[in-house]
Specification:
Oligomer: single chain
Distance between the termini: 12 Å
Number of helices: 12
CATH superfamily of the largest domain: HAD superfamily/HAD-like
Order of helices and strands: EEEHHHHHHEHEHHEHEHEH
Structural class: alpha/beta
Bound molecules: magnesium ion
CATH topology of the largest domain: Rossmann fold
Largest sheet: 6 strands, parallel
Length: 264
């Protein structure tokens, strides 16, 4: 069988019919899917704690970092729904994290810290495990593209720092489209730009709402990279809570990017 092609069974008029299915276009999310958002954020934040050491004093880094993630996730969810402006998102996640560690920070300091974060973080080079192997494997066999909700002025730096340039034909940024994932218009726009048909396209991403449900609702197959979910399950198990469950099964669930090489 040709690479990238496979058969799926369809129950049709009391018979199994097998149809050939083949992807020709792969659409990747960037943050947390190819570019290692978590590890890169940690390195950037550690660096900022050193450069702003005088102002920061003795803040517990781990506590601050976990509070930052908590607020960051929250404001990004609002941003996807158009309920917070980019400038406010940038500022508020740090304002709240500093407040949570009882640090009296002036608005000027928070503003500078949040601007510096946007300078330092996108220059970090770490990719998700297996990212380059996967991209090298797919290069030449598939047309590859990025669909990202990330800020337009930083996504290019991330691509460059992580040596991700050169694999992708199109980089679709929500700021150019005017809507964010999971809005169907961004998927529609991406496919138009790529000249791709929906049935030949696969969305690969780590965000359940933006990437997976977004692609599903647009009628596109999805590969869900569930590293975060595994971590969440481990944390829940530790605290006696149940595993994370979704009442929808994506086309594929990946525990690492290398799993995708078995599918493609
Ligand atoms: Mg992501």
């Amino acid at each position: 069988m040709e690479r990238g092609a496979f058969f799926i069974g369809v129950w049709h008029e009391k018979n199994w019919t097998f149809i050939l299915k083949k992807y020709t276009h792969l659409f990747f999310d960037l943050d947390g899917t190819l570019w290692d958002l978590k590890r890169n954020t940690r390195t950037a934040m550690e660096e900022l704690f050193v450069t702003h050491g005088e102002h920061i004093g003795h803040i517990d880094f781990e506590l601050f970092f976990s509070r930052y993630h908590y607020h960051n996730d929250h404001v990004w969810a609002l941003y996807r729904q158009d309920k917070i402006k980019k400038e406010d998102l940038r500022y508020v996640r740090f304002e709240r994290a500093f407040a949570d560690v009882s640090h009296q920070a002036s608005s000027d300091f928070i503003d500078q810290f949040s601007l510096d974060f946007l300078e330092v973080a996108p220059r970090q080079p770490l990719t998700m495990e297996g990212a380059h192997q996967l991209l090298d494997y797919c290069k030449g066999q598939y047309a590859m593209h990025i669909i990202t909700n990330g800020f337009v002025e930083v996504q290019g730096h991330k691509m460059k720092a992580a040596a991700l340039e050169g694999y992708f034909e199109h980089m679709i940024n929500s700021e150019h489209v005017g809507v964010r994932k999971p809005h169907p218009d961004i998927f529609r726009y991406a496919l138009q730009q790529a000249g791709a048909k929906v049935e030949e396209s696969l969305m690969i991403g780590d965000d359940w709402d933006a990437d997976i449900l977004g692609a599903r609702d647009f009628g596109m197959d999805q590969a869900y990279l569930s590293v975060k979910e595994q971590e969440q399950n481990a944390t829940n198990a530790e605290y006696g809570n149940g595993p994370v469950r979704h009442n929808y099964k994506p086309t594929y669930t990946l525990h690492s990017l290398s799993d995708l090489m078995e599918i493609l």
